[in-house]
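Quick one: structure tokens for this chain, please?
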Amino acid sequence: MGARIVIVEDDEPLRLILEQNLRKEGLTVEGLSRGDEAEARIEKSLPDILVLDWTLPGISGIDLCRRLRSRPEAISLPIVLLTDLADEDERIAGLAAGADDCLVKPFSTMEFVVRVKNLLRRTNPAVLGHMIKVGDLTLDRASHRVHRQQREVRLGPTEFKLLEFLMRSPGKVYSRSELRASLWGDDATVDERVIDVHIGRLRKGIGFGKADNVIRTVRGAGYALSDY
């Protein structure tokens, strides 16, 4: 499991090809077909990179890019625009709207993957690495193992994914809905209270059966991993 990429493209065959090739690189990918759907999803949880087709139903990619750049929480979100026109003025307009990169269709799938990974490497290199270290906790994505104080921590797959999400932003408080979205996407059938169960299991695992304050409960707000 690696960085989370959201691709918003109404050309389903193209979207599926892009999703498949990014997943081969160990990246977590979510595909959407409408701009308004993407805007609602992003309000709940920011991805590591957003890929937008220029023309989308609901809200166009270029308009969504402009909207996001006006919001403080998304001002630094890496955005890639996909366009059908090779016109230089359109590409310049995309970059002026706040896109970090602009690809003209048809493009090489390999080039797309390389550009996405290069953008990740520039903006958030930690998500491409196998190891994440926070305090005395070390998480290895490649081997799917966690160690604390050089002792291996036994976690289930859901607790592992939850811990990785928390470790990517130590000290940041996440609501139950944000944590649910990180685990299951926007699946409304999953009760937010299930998060409390997984947090409890995660605490027990990284505490080796003993209570500690590595994961803080912030009353009325959610949970956070201590930033030591």
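The two ends are 25 Å apart (CA to CA).
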